[in-house]
Amino acid sequence: MKHFVPYLSAILLFVGCSKQPSITFSNMSETHLLKSDFSELPNWQQEDYTNALESFTQSCKTAKTREIYKDLCMRSADATDAKEFLTSYFTPYKISLPNDDKDGLLTGYYEPEIKGSLTKKEPYVYPVYTTPKDLVVIDLSQQYPELKNYRLRGRVVGNRVVPYYDRKNVNITPIDSEVLCYTDSKIDLFFLEVQGSGRVTLDDGSTIFVGYDNQNGYQYSSIGKYLVSISEIPLEKISLQSIKAWLEQNPSRIDEVLNYNKSMVFFRQKDKPASGSLGVVLTPKRSIAVDRRYIPLGSMLYLSAKTEAVDFNHVVMAQDTGGAIKGTLRADIFMGYGEEAKEIAGELKAPLKLWILLPKESS
Fold this sequence. Notes:
Layout: H1 4-17, E1 22-25, E2 28-35, H2 49-59, H3 63-69, H4 71-76, H5 82-89, E3 90-96, E4 104-111, E5 113-117, E6 126-129, E7 136-139, E8 151-157, E9 160-162, H6 167-170, E10 179-183, H7 186-195, E11 197-202, E12 207-215, H8 223-229, H9 240-249, H10 254-258, E13 265-270, E14 287-289, E15 300-306, E16 311-320, E17 330-337, H11 339-347, E18 349-359
Parallel strand pairs: 4-17, 5-11, 14-16
Antiparallel strand pairs: 1-2, 2-3, 3-18, 4-18, 5-10, 6-10, 7-8, 8-9, 11-12, 12-13, 14-17, 15-16, 15-18
């Protein structure tokens, strides 16, 4: 997002001078913004403004949020009226696709808990790997600026860089990696990868936190879509819960299904609970994962989504990313830790509307 801020004042000036009530991020051409008003935000009057401002202030501890909002981060610490601060200093812009007013998609994620041991012994036989020492990450942005959001991952064989081992081959090939711990379920380990971070309750009663550190370079492929495509689970029934139940009922096909997703996540031990790509501890229902190609990490947004079970209308912070989170109107909301969070996150699929809250134009 380093190119976002220098264009911000020019963008806002364009809004003030143009007859068209829309703007486009200069370095994110697919992100189309329509100038809006707080009165147009669903259930804005029911927002917990104090809690919303606290989320913003907390995110201001990160460089990304400070880069976007500058002095508003400093002012937020002294604000005495949260609602007045938000409405006085920010303007909402509705996010949409060019010439498209369709809703997006909101899903949920949570901080899972798995069982583990620091030593390999039955039933703890599935390793939680750190980043392999032979994994090479290549940044091509200096030669190809248009690829600044991409990284090439692989391993060196002779004088060539070749793709790194996919999930299937990591599980059958010794790799040059340390093991944080061993767990008793390859299914639970897979969903730990999907969530990106979690906690491991060890056999001695202690707990360690683990989080995303790297991945093997393959694009994420949904095993849910795979199970739908082979007519094992109907599309309308697909969820974390239904996928896990199918795997447990079909132990002989676990590897077939999990290996469909060639992408594999490597972890590092952390000293705090779930934190996102910005490094700040995630806040339940206030932190979301976005596609950083379309929405700036560190930005403040207003999210609106509704299902029969849940109704979200509130301020959120873009503090995380995810392999499955692709597109402009796409977000994954963090639900927290525990069984209730797991149940809601696993079932959540809702039409999504998003507004980004940007600093008001100066005079």
